[in-house]
Amino acid sequence: MNIGITFDLKDDYAKDGYTEEEIAEFDRPETIEAIEYALHSLGHSTQRIGTSRALAMRLSKGDRWDLVFNSAEGMYGFGRQALAPALLDAYEVPYIFADPLCLAVTLHKATAKRIVRDSGIRTPDFAVVETIADVEKIVLPFPLFVKPVAEGTSKGISAAAKIHDRRELQSRCEMLLSRYRQPVLVEIYLPGREFTVGVLGTGSAAYVLGTMEIILKDGPDPGIYSYDNKKHFDERVAPRLVDDATSRAAAGIALAAWKCLGARDGGRIDVRCDDAGEVNFIEANPLAGMHPRDSDLPLIARMTGVSYASLIERIVASASTRFSR
């Protein structure tokens, strides 16, 4: 197949003056190179498309591909991840990974939690702060955990995200509202084990690739998988592939969430245990990072003996079931 690749490169945005945190979710050149190399090794040809804006221009000029490997994150709004898939849908070009609905729903973490909760999947009680006045309406028990409602890569999360009283809640919400210009998700803090579950496939064909426990070493943000801890992953995180009763429960909840949210082809579901050891859904990552060494989904694949090329092959095969060539 002739496969196009959509993406946002960190380097391109850095040249335009964006901060390191603002572009944390975007790809490095070696990620796109690795995707291309894997696709070439599988016998496909590739074309680099780039951002959603570049995609729109090429589509309007008549460019088409047999399939698009979508890694475009977008920059603004709750629909930023959904933009490239929506454009591809409009021009009837098949693509890899989730559709616009799934990407918009899962980017807005509170919406995703409402959907999984309504589907009977356990998730910690939560509230959404849209203005600072909303803090007064919150009746959840402390400690709480707060974060921007629609960011990835743990942006906005640090040791200060764990909230112990109403004064801290007020102060932290004021900061997040001002800095990220979006609502704040406030949920009951879960003190137990934390997992990220790699899932491949779509619908009834979806399956768990592996479950990785996030174990944090001593550091400035103890017990919290923060933006800074993710940034210094090699020094501060000791991930391990696990297979015990709790991790199997995590896998079950992750797979159920994956299906009810309509995620496709490949990605991750993050879960965490409460103080009773019960596994709770935290958030979905249907447009997961694909850096061959640093991203969690390829890391889980590697831990389970699945090479990067084989991971890409499985993802392409899943997407290919949605169209006939």
**What global shape is seen?**
globular
Please give the radius of gyration in angstroms. Answer: 19 Å
| Strand count | 13
Order of SSEs, N→C? Answer: EHHEHEHEHHEEEHEEEHHEHEEHH
Number of domains: 3
Note the beta-strand portion: 15-25%
**CATH-defined superfamily of the largest domain:** ATP-grasp fold, B domain
Protein model, in words:
- The chain is an alpha+beta fold and 325 residues long.
- The chain has three domains: 2-96, 3-Layer(aba) Sandwich (Rossmann fold), CATH 3.40.50.20; 125-188, ATP-grasp fold, A domain (Dna Ligase, domain 1, 2-Layer Sandwich), CATH 3.30.1490; 191-320, D-amino Acid Aminotransferase, Chain A, domain 1, CATH 3.30.470.20.
- It is 36% helix and 20% strand.
- It is built from twelve helices and 13 strands.
- The protein has helices at 10-15, 29-41, 52-60, 83-90, 100-107, 109-118, 166-180, 227-231, 233-236, 245-261, 296-303, 308-320, and strands at 2-7, 45-50, 67-71, 95-96, 126-129, 144-148, 162-163, 184-188, 194-200, 207-213, 240-241, 266-273, 279-285.
- The chain has a five-stranded antiparallel beta sheet with strand order 11-10-9-12-13, with helices on both faces. It has a four-stranded parallel beta sheet with strand order 2-1-3-4, with helices on both faces. A four-stranded antiparallel beta sheet has the order 5-8-6-7, with helices on one face.
- Strand 3 (67-71), helix 4 and strand 4 form a beta-alpha-beta unit.
- Helix 2 (29-41) crosses helix 12 (308-320) and helix 3 packs parallel to helix 4 (83-90).
- The longest helix has 17 residues, at 245-261.
- The radius of gyration is 19 Å and the shape is globular.
- The termini are close together.
- The model has no long low-confidence stretch (mean pLDDT 95).
